[in-house]
Every structure is written in structure tokens, then in C-alpha cells.
Input
Amino acid sequence: MAGIGFSYKKYIAVIALQIVMVMTVLDVTLVNVALPVLAGKFDISSSTAIWVITIYQLVITMLLLPVSSIGDLFSYKRTFLVGVSVFTLSSALCAASQNFTMLIIARALQGIGAACVMGVNIALVRLIYPREILGRGMALNAMCIAIATAAGPTIGGAILSIASWHWLFLINVPLGLVAFFIGWRLLPHNPEVDHKPKFDWLSAVENMIVFGLIFYALGNFSRKGDVVLSSIMLVVGIGVGIFYLRRQFHHEQPLLPVDLFRNSMYSMSIATSVCSFIAQNMTMIALPFLYLKSYHFSEITTGLLMTPWPIATMIVSPIAARYVEKHNPGATAALGMCVFIVGVLLLLFTGDSPSEYNIAWRMAVCGVGFGMFQTPNNIVMVMATPVNRTGGAGGLQSTARLVGQTLGATIVSTVFAITASNTGAVATCLVISVIFALCAGVFSYTRTLGHKGELHM
Output
């Protein structure tokens, strides 16, 4: 009975992880809805209001790998609890903001907390779930993220319809307190290791400079900002990145886990992840322009038409997780990308005036494909790394997702800037999305060649 009780408590601990994952995802989708409200409240332009989103995502990107390394070296549990504490406190500060500067500072603090949580989430899932059912834990992650993505705009709109914008942030406070209490009582500690390398502070600073400058420059290009300044930042970021990479190759336990790239299965998984999220984000960003400007649907209808995708992903992810407990996850992920490609091609050839139904089921096909892909791909990445390096590997996995999403957004902005017609721009984006999805599928299938035994759970 003791063993059963201990196991039960460990699974209850998953609630803490999922509460915070939902909070961190919702804090993008909720605030997106409120940008016009915030612009009016603080008397700022729409382009300035976007900084509420930008600063949050930028800080997360800069800190993911450093906090993941801290988790590996010291404690995933403590890193998570610090992240929850910072995120919850900064949410209260966001709600209490009296001016835009205060709100931006609070949002940056939220990014610090979110990075701590995201950086060790996968490592904690791996410690909680036995190897043979790890896929279920990964699927639960994907399902909660899909739910938050699908429900975020609706929840945000509902809150703004009955309360002030402050409540978009205040709802995090009770949820954060619950997550902290459960995590403090029930989350597991790191496995014991004989030797712990020192934390590499210089690499951490270099990492923040590299990702901060490069991601800010790419975002500025997509927003049509100062081209000269953005170009300088991009060049400086790449230059520092060269020194950063050289340092990582000579470090015992590198912040950027370049040593893991010697494992071909892991390196192919990262390439797969980047390509897949470029494809996903390009499709998700381009389609609303098609629905609004070419098909002339209303904003509400367009929002509803985007919903079948995350809902399908939410439904399929746990099914895929169960399936790969006995079947090859690399091959399953490759099949998922094939289904995703079929969905995108179906959307590309919907005709000039399709019905809402004909669009909705095609969106669902895309979601089914991505649900078949995402969980198996994450499983392959996790299982290809040593347990004591799961934090760094998980941080790089999240970074790969952000890199893919950022590159996808930048490509869409570029295509729309150089293409005369809206319909033509969307079609071009969907074609490019198919190409990246095809690359992801090929990379994923390549992992199954020569690694059949390793890929089975």
C-alpha cells in the first residue's frame, strides 16, 4: 500500500505542472485579446501595446537554457517553485500596474517565472512517470497546452465582458498558490549524482545576449521596424553566438547541450521540431488573413474556424501517447506530419467560396496530424538523453519550438510584404509550410533507420 500511495501522490503532483503550464500559455492568448483595451487605457499606440506580448516571450527565450541548466545542476523542484512564486507575484504586479512602464517590468518578471517553469517541466514529467507510460505524461502536456490555446481568446473575451483588464492577471494568483502548495509537497527531487559541475555564468550571459538580440531583431523585421538597427543587432547576436558555441564545445556540461547533438536521434529530433513549428505557425498566422480578407468571414467566425485545430490536437495527443507505448514513436511522428501535410493541402485547394464546414473539417485534419506528431516527437527527444540532462534537453526542446514559431512568423511577414495579393500571399505561405512539414516528416522517419530498438519505449 505504501508503494501505491507514493505513486498516487506523484501523479497528483502532475496537477501542479499542468496548472502552471496552462497559466503560462493563457498569459499570451488572454493578453492578445486585451491589447486594444490596454492601448486605450494607457494612451499608447497599438505597436507599443504589442510590447506586452513581446517582452514576455523575449525573456522566456533568453532564459530557458540557463534555468534548465540550473535545474540539472541543483534541483528541478526548486527551480519550478521559484518560477511559480515569481510568476504569481508578477501577475499581481501586472494587475496593480498604474502605468505602462510598470506593466512592462511586471511582464518581464512574468517571463522569468515562466522560463523557470518551462525549463524544467519535461524533466519533472520524466521523473514522475515510469518509462513505459512516459508518453501519457507528454500527451497530458500537449493536451493542456492545446486546451489553453483553444480556450484562451474565449476566456479573455469573457473576462473583459464582465470585468476590467486587471482580472486577466489576477486569475493567476489563486492558481499559482495552489500549484506552489502541491509542488512543494509532492514534486520529486533530482536523482543523486556523484559529481555536479559548476554553473557557467559566462555562458548564461552569452546565451541571453545571443537569443535576446537575434529574436528581437527578427521580431523587429517582422514588425517593419528600423532595418539598420535590426541588422546591426542580428549581426552582433550572430557574432556573440559564434564565441558562445565555441565555449560550449569545451565545457564539461554545456549550457547549450551541444554534446547531445552527437546523438543523431536527438539532433534529428531538434531539427524535426524546428521545421514542424515553422510549418505550424506559418499556417496558423496566414489562414486568418484568408478567412477575413479573401472569404470575408467575420472576426467571430474566423476565431471559431481556427478552433477545430487545437481541439483535434487535444483529442489525438493522448491516443498517440498510448499507441507509441507499443509502437515506434519516430514512425508515428512521421505519419503525423504526413496527415498534417494533407490537411494543409486540403486548405490550399478549398476553392473560392468554401463553406464554414468545409474549412472546419480541414482544420481538424491539420490538428489530428499535429497531435499524432507532437507527443511522439517529444518522447523521442526525452528518451534520447540521460536522466540528469533532461532539464537542458527539455529547455532546448522549448527553445526549438520558439525558434520555429519566430522563424515562421518572420517568413509570413516577409511573404506578405513582397506579395501583391492577399490570396497569393496566403497560398505561398501554405506551400512553404508544406515544404517545412515535409522536411520534418523526413527527419522524423530518418530516426527510425538504424535506431529501431532505441525508439521503442
